[in-house]
Every structure is written in C-alpha cells, then in structure tokens.
Amino acid sequence: MRPYSVVENKGFKNMIKVLEPRCEIPSRYHFTTKIVPELYEEQKKIIVDELSKASSVALTTDGWTSRATESYMTVTAHYITAEWEIKSPVLQTRPLYESHTGTNLAQVLTGTVAEWKVERPKNNIPVTTDNAKNQVSAVKEAGLGPQIGCFAHVINLASQRGCPSHKMDRLFGRIRKVVSFFHRSTTAAHVLKTKQEMLQLPTHKLMQDVPTRWNSTYVMLERYLEQQAAIFSALTDKALKINIRDIVTLSDDDVNVAEEVLQVLKPLKMVTTLLSTESAPSVSVVLHLKTKIIQSMSPSEGDSTISRDVKAAIKADLNRRYTDHPDLQNYLHRSTALDPRFKSLSHLDPALRQRTYNDLTTEIVGKLGTEEHEELKTV
User: Fold this and answer.
1) Which stretch of DSSP H or E encloses residue 41?
2) Who contacts 97 (Cβ-Cβ below 8 Å, separation ≥6)?
3) In 142-251, which residue ranges form alpha helices assigned H by DSSP?
4) 127-129 vs 147-149, strand pairing mode
5) Torsions phi, psi for 71 (to 5 deg)
6) DSSP labels for 277-315?
7) pLDDT tens digit sequence for 249-273
8) Per-residue pLDDT tens for 207-228?
9) Angle, to 10 degrees, between the axis of helix 216-226 and the axis of helix 151-161?
10) Element containing residue 128 per DSSP (H, E)
11) Cα–Cα distance measured from residue 257 to residue 251, given in angstroms and rounded to the nearest whole number
C-alpha cells in the first residue's frame, strides 16, 4: 500500500543494496505501466469468469468524497459460487467529474454492468443504494432493479425524523456546544480527564454527532449522560470558568428528556450495530427487523409526551419504507421466506403469507422444470 515513488527513495535503494546487491529495483514507470495493470487484468479475468458462472448477481453502489474533495462512485457485486460461497468483490471505483444526477450515475452503472458482463437475460439485477433520489432514479434509468434502500440508512433517517421538535433541537444544541468546547480546548480536556479520574468514571472522550454517521446522535447522548457528573464538575472548575461563554449545562428536566430519548432510540442502535457487524447481511432481514422496530415504537402507559412524539415520528417514517412498489415488496417477502430464520413470515397476515409461499413454490418449480429441460437437450 506504499506509493510507487518509494522505489526512487534513496533510503529504500540503500536498504535493498544491503539486503541483495544484485537486485535491480523496477522503476516507478514499470510499476505503473506493467506490473500493477497486469495484476489488475489477472484479477479481473478471474472475477469475470466467476460472475459468468453465477446464476444471479446483485449490486451495491454508493458515492463518496475523498479527503482531497474528489468524488467517486463504487460498485460492488454479490453472488454465490458453485461451492456455495458468498463473494462480494468491488468491481470498480470511478471518479465522478460530472454533476451527480440520476442520468450520469445511471451511465456509470450501465457501463459497469456491460464491462463486467453482469447482464442476465432471464434474471433481474437488484441494486442496493442509499435513499437519495439521484441514486434511486439512477437504478431505474439503468434498467436495473429492484432498487433496495439500504436498511441501515433507513434506520438512520428514521432516528433523525424522530427528533425534530424545538425542545429536542434545543437539547441537542446545548450538548453539542459542551462537546465542542471540550474538543477545542486542551486545557478543558485535561480538566475533564482529571474530574473523570476523581469521580472514578471511565476516561472516555465526549462524542460529537454527525448527520451522516449512523448512531452518532445516540452515542453523543449516551456518552454525555455517562459523563454528566464529570462535565458539570469540570465546567465549574476555576481553571475553566473564565473561558466559558454561551455554554449551559442540562437541567434536571433536560436530563430526563435525554434519558427517555436514549431509551426510545436503543432498538435502532441495536439493529444498526447488528447489520454493521454482519459479514454478509441479506435483504431477508429487512422486513423482519422493520416489523420488530415498529412494534417497539408502540406507546407504553408510562411514556412521557416527548417519548410518545419520538416514537410516533419514527413509526410513521418506517411504515412508509419499502411500500412504494409491489414488485419490491414481493421480492422482499420471497427473500424473507427463503431465510430459515424468518421463513414462518410471522410479520405477514395469513392471506399474504400463503400467497408468498404459493408464488415462491411456482417460481421454484418453473426453474427446476427449465433446468431439467436444458439438461435433456444437452444429453
């Protein structure tokens, strides 16, 4: 993972000369024009061959920006080999110089499918993306689908929708100011650490939330509540008092609200962590987990007004997800039925459950019949 220029470094050349005086180090140009391109073509040939043998292929794609503020789009393929091994090679990461419209993204997707020979005349190519409108329209314009919104992203959006009130904005604003203060000042960070040790609290750093980072609001709240005694003690310390401006610690009412919201968001945090730790997460978990989260958002007798409002907002946001297109719903129902963990389809009403089983049985029998017919033709 070192840059090609390392072979031109004086120290590197001296090291190789000591280790093996007869060795002739390949030039930087040789690496860029021959060695690495040959390695790439070799690996590409292997992956194209595996893709050609896979009966079905799914894609995931996302756009991202590098630290040098350059935009890229990455496409990953997912398939099962003849040995029943799930593979997920990254097909390409290409720079995006044009505006990120659905049409431009669709051209990248179409080019990827053609270059890697992913087309399947008899099978659809499902594509998982985030829930941005340009990504959704790109899949449609590329003639691929169904388009499946990333479930972890859906949960993150639902948690943000659940905390939109003025009271919540004020609460998060106060916490962010406190966190920013301790992040900016080395003196404040040192005083906080001293107070943590004195109060025998974990010497954890305070966390700032980021809208695009999953669970970050939950983590910010959780860490603040864990460290609130140390925070209050540090902010009232003589060494910091003169530097504090516009920073207000949480009242008892604010702390109660934060604790309630944390409890409501806990199931979302657990599901996101579960999905993030899975080595090969499957769409078969989407509807099951969605149902479980919605059930956990049902109001309880002891809920405060703020808890009820947050639960209602999250529930309303999740209820509309994955319901736009009947084809997508059917696809997710069949995927869930094929997963041994959820094949009972307990989240569906009896009529829809039976229809899903019937559709799946018909599809399987039809494919088996086609395969037998092809085998007979070969014989």
Assistant:
1) helix 36-53
2) 71
3) 151-161, 166-184, 186-198, 216-226, 228-235, 238-241
4) parallel
5) -90, 140
6) H-SS--GGGHHHHHHHHHHHTS--TT--HHHHHHHHHHH
7) 888 888 998 999 899 999 999 999 8
8) 998 877 778 889 999 999 999 9
9) 60
10) strand 127-129
11) 10
Q: Kindly state the tokens that stand for 167.
A: 């009271």
**For the chain, what is the radius of gyration of the CA atoms?**
27
Q: Contact, 218 vs 262, CB < 8 A?
A: yes
Residue with tokens 């309303």: 316
Question: Can you tell me which residue has the tokens 């756009």?
Answer: 63
Return contacts of 95-102, CB within 8 angstroms, 24+ apart. Answer: 95/70, 95/71, 96/63, 96/71, 96/72, 97/71, 100/63, 100/71, 100/134, 101/134, 102/133, 102/134, 102/135, 102/136, 102/137, 102/138, 102/140, 102/141
Nearest to 338 by CA among 97, 18, 56: 56
Are 258 and 221 spatial neighbours (Cβ–Cβ below 8 Å)?
A: yes
Three-state DSSP at 188 gives: helix
Q: Which DSSP letter does residue 204 get?
A: P
The structure's pTM equals 0.84
State the burial class of residue 365 (Cβ atoms within 10 Å of its Cβ: 0-12, 13-18, 19+): exposed
Phi, psi (deg, nearest 5) at residue 251: -80, 170
